[in-house]
Amino acid sequence: MADSEDHNPATRLAEIHSRIAHAAALARRRPEDVALIAVSKNCAADAIVPLIAAGQRRFGENRVQEAQDKWPALRERHADIELHLVGQLQSNKAADAVALFDAIHSLDRPSLTAALARACERAGRQPLLFAQVNIGAEPQKGGCAIAALPTLIEEARGAGLTVSGLMCVPPTALEPAPYFALLGELADRNGLPVRSMGMSGDYETAVMLGATHVRIGTALFGARA
Ligand SMILES: *Cc1c(COP(=O)(O)O)cnc(C)c1O
Predict the structure, then answer these.
(1) Is the pLDDT of residue 14 over 50?
(2) Nearest to 223 by CA among 24, 47, 75
(3) Reported CATH class of domain 4-221
(4) Which of 101, 203, 215 to mutate to test the pocket of ligand 1 (most atoms within 8 A of CB)?
(5) Ligand 1 atom with the shortest distance to the CA of 200
(6) How far apart are CA 162 and CA 175, in angstroms?
(7) How far is the CA of 182 from the CAs of 37, 95, 131, 166, 188, in angstroms?
(8) Which of 121, 111, 118, 67 is nearest to 90 (CA)?
(9) pLDDT tens profile 124-159
């Protein structure tokens, strides 16, 4: 990025909003039906504050502990912050996650369903819940196998949880569109209206294929250390 203005978080934010609007228009979708999650993992509060000042309110983190360290202080000044957990969740952190996050994108196994159901019952609240799908069947990646998804959703409902949507991270270095299309199909098949898909490198494609939540880090904050 040659233009020094490109390093201004407000400028980057406006640019991404405009790209989302363009992609939505191409797909005959309304831009307001796409929620931009600013993924601030590894970012210090100093880097986050300018984005809040520019009007961004929805943020994503991938570790419970890091979010606990950063967000309570920021939320004291901005009560309308919406916090999304986009990383893997250990069952023993379920209660902490339910207390802190407004949305959890990583329900991927029965043991976590049980832990989240207990935590939500105790807390008397349930964050917006996404089942994460291992959409490329990659052994090293989190997410539930496609074949196991109906059971996971059914068990979650049986435990009193409402699963609103699906989330995926397609294989890196492959064309993401077929994976986004597949996630949309799986969501349709399971009657789920919400789709969390698309990151810095592919969010326009995701928006054209029905993303309701895009998770953007690098394009907003620059490369992570
Ligand atoms: C880090 C991360 C993102 C953001 O990735 P960028 O490529 O930096 O936009 C999105 N989703 C998940 C699950 C992540 O871990």
Answers:
(1) yes
(2) 47
(3) alpha beta
(4) 215
(5) 9
(6) 31
(7) 22, 32, 14, 11, 10
(8) 111
(9) 999 999 999 999 999 999 999 999 999 999 999 999
Q: Which helix (H) or strand (E) holds 39?
A: strand 35-39
Locate the domains of the chain by residue range: 4-221
Alpha-carbon separation of residue 32 from 20, 53, 140, 212 (angstroms): 9, 20, 34, 9
Please choose, from the candidates 134, 129, 135, the residue with its C-alpha nearest in 3D space to the C-alpha of residue 105: 129
Band (7; pLDDT cuts 50, 70, 90): confident
Q: Please give the distance, rounded to the nearest whole angstrom, from the Cα atom of residue 82 to the centre of ligand 1.
A: 17
- Determine the 3-state secondary structure of 80 from DSSP: coil
pLDDT, tens digit, for every residue of 172-191?
989 999 999 999 999 999 99
Task: Give the pocket of ligand 1 (CB within 6 Å).
Answer: 39, 41, 62, 86-87, 169, 199-200, 215-219
